[in-house]
Amino acid sequence: MSPLPEPHLSPAPETPDTLGEVAELPAVAPRLRALRRRSGLTLEAAAARVGLSPAHLSRLETGRRTPSLPMLLALARTYGTTVSDLLGEVPAELDPIVRADRMEPQEAGGWTYWRAGGSGRAMQALRLHVPQGRGSQEELVRVHPGEEWLYVTRGRLRLTLGNVTHLLDPGDAAHFDSLTPHRIVADSRGGVDLLFLHTLLQSGAAELCLGGTRPTQRGIR
């Protein structure tokens, strides 16, 4: 198969179909504003770190838009917190055990996730279901400080790291530097289920959610 053109990274389109309905996550807006102010960031500075316009971030903070799960992850990293904290979830203090009956499913932008770790840690653990065919979310390429680890439990995952795309089956895992541009896409009809870990690093480096790319197909096995 001949390689496709090298990817061109550009800001992710700020379209409603990547964000979902406001009713999905009603408590997020005020927490986004409070966490940004606590971090000492202006609206413009925070928006630049997550690759959004200030107007778009303002809409998230006022509840006129709801962020997708990738955007929640980006915002959590920027503010040095977790998605659980953004959602106002308060697990038991210092409890190292997360029981199955406390892993309530949450949906954001069509992705479903379950918190599988405690808050206030240096990394976040999630169970994640990514459905197949989520439109522009499949075009998102992410770049941010830290590390990510994932493990496929069901379905097939198409993972793009830089210019190389890999197919991962159940039992396969990946561990990579998050500064490598990466993209996660379900490659099976029923979607893909993952165990997912990522570090939470607050950094001056801009965090980008980028879209509109078509990476090369080298590395598919």
Please describe the topology of this protein.
Blueprint: E1 10-11, H1 28-38, H2 43-49, H3 54-61, H4 69-78, H5 83-86, E2 106-108, E3 111-115, E4 123-130, E5 141-143, E6 147-154, E7 157-161, E8 164-168, E9 173-177, E10 182-186, E11 192-199, E12 208-211
Task: Give an overview of the whole structure.
This protein is α+β, with helices and mostly antiparallel strands. The protein is 18% helix and 28% strand. The protein contains five helices and twelve strands. It has helices at residues 28-38, 43-49, 54-61, 69-78, 83-86; strands spanning 10-11, 106-108, 111-115, 123-130, 141-143, 147-154, 157-161, 164-168, 173-177, 182-186, 192-199, 208-211. The strands form three sheets. It has a six-stranded antiparallel sheet, with helices on one face. Strand 3 and strand 4 (123-130) form a beta hairpin. It is globular, with a radius of gyration of 17 Å. The two termini are 12 Å apart.
